[in-house]
Amino acid sequence: MKILIVNRLMGIRRGGGEYFDYYIARELQRMGNEVKFIVGRRLKAGGLLPLSEFDTVYISTPFLREYYHRLETSKLRIVRKVGSIILDLDLYLFERKVLNYIKRSTKCDFDIVQLCGLWRLGSWIEKRLKIPATIVWHGEPSKRCIKYGRHCSYHIAIGSAYAKVKNYIDANTLKLEPGVDVDLFAPKPESKIREALGLDLESILFLFVGRLIPVKNLSFMLQGFCEVLRENSKIHLLIVGDGPEMGSLIDFVKGNGMAANVTFTGNLRREEMVNYYSASDAFVMTSKYESFPLALLEAMSCSLPVIVPSIGWFPRLIRDGENGKLIDLDNVDSLRQAFSFVANNRAWRREAGARNRNIAREYSWESTAFRLISFYQQVVREK
What is the pLDDT of residue 312? Predict the structure, then answer.
C-alpha cells in the first residue's frame, strides 16, 4: 500500500504528533508498505530536522507559530486574536503549497493521504483534487475544525480526542493509542547525569519532558515546586525541552531563589532521553490539555512513577496512589502535596515504577500500526 503522510512540523521541531507519525511510518514501512512524507521547513537556511529514513519532500514557508505562542496568554483579547490569525496564516501558507505540490506532481498516486491535523488541507484535497483524505486528530476539534473536518473521508483520533471526533465529525472514527519501544525505553544503570547536577543519593530528581509552551502549564509546575522546596531542599527539577516560554520560566526560577534546584537542558537528542528518564526518580506533567503524550509512556516504560493532572486520558492510565499521583489542575497545594508524597516515599516510588513498566508493555507501535493498516486496507477495498 502507498501512503502519503503530511506533517507541518516534522522538519522544524518534533513533538507528540511528529513522533507518532515517525514511529507509525517506520512500522508501516517495515510491514512492506511504501511511505512518503511531505513536511514543513523554515525559510531560512539551517535548522532542518531531516527525515532520511523515508522519501521526503520539504515545503518551505514562513514559520510564524512562535509568535502565536508569545501572544496566546495575553490578557488582552485583541492580542490573543492577533495570535490566532498568525497561527492560521502559518498553517494556510503551508497548506497552499502542499496542495499545489500534490496538484502538480505526477508521483502522487497514493492509496491513502494521511494528515497530521490540517483539516482545512484535507477538505481542499477532497474538494479540488477528488482524493480521499484521512485526518489524524491529536487534540479535540474546535467548531471551525469540525466544519472543515466533515468534508474529509476518514478520521483517526488519539486518546481523549476520540469522543469528540466521533460524536461531532464521524461516527466511524478509528481510535488509536500511541506505542512505546520498551526495549529502548528501559531502566538503565544510573548515568553521570545526577553527578553532573550535583545530586547525592538522598536527592530526589523530578523530570519534565516537552515543549515550553503555555498549554504545558509550566508556570503552575514551578509554583508547586517552589512551595515544596520550602519544606524539602533535597529535591531537584529537570526541565527538558525548548520553546518560547523558556525566558520567562528561567526568570521565575531565578526570582524565587530556585536556580540551584531547577535545571533547564534545552532540546536533547532522542537517543539521549532514556538516560535522563533512568537518572530520574519521578516524571511530572501539569498540562492544561493532553490527548495521550508519548513522553508519559516513555517515562512509565523506564519505571518512573508519575505526577499528572486528572484530565483527558491521564486517569485511564494512572491510578492515584498506585502508579502515580493525580492532582487538581492549577491547585498549587494539590501539586505541592504530590511532590512531597513522591519525594518522601522511596519504597512506593519503586513499586509504582514497576507497575508502570508493566503497563507500558501493553503499548507497542507494531500493534498500533497493525490496527491502522487494517483500517486502511478496509478503506481501499470500499473505494
Answer: 84
pLDDT at 365: 96
Higher pLDDT, residue 78 or 192: 78
Once rounded to an integer, what is the mean pLDDT over residues 245-254?
95
Do residues 99 and 76 lie in contact, with contact meaning Cβ atoms separated by under 8 Å? no
Degrees to nearest 5, angle at CA 266 with 263 and 269: 120
What is the distance between the alpha carbons of residues 175 and 159, in angstroms, rounded to a whole number?
7
119 within 8 A of 149, measured Cβ to Cβ: yes
Task: Give the pLDDT confidence score for residue 381 in this predicted structure.
Answer: 82
**CB atoms closer than 10 angstroms to residue 375:** 17
Neighbour count for residue 32 (Cβ, 10 Å): 8
Q: Are 372 and 24 in contact (CB under 8 A)?
A: yes
Could you tell me which CATH number the domain at 193-360 has?
3.40.50.2000
Indicate the CATH number of 2-179+364-382 among 3.40.50.300, 3.40.50.720, 3.40.50.2000, 3.40.50.12780.
3.40.50.2000
* CA-closest candidate to residue 40, choices 100, 1, 78, 95: 95
Residue type, 382: E
Does the pTM surpass 0.85? The reply is: yes
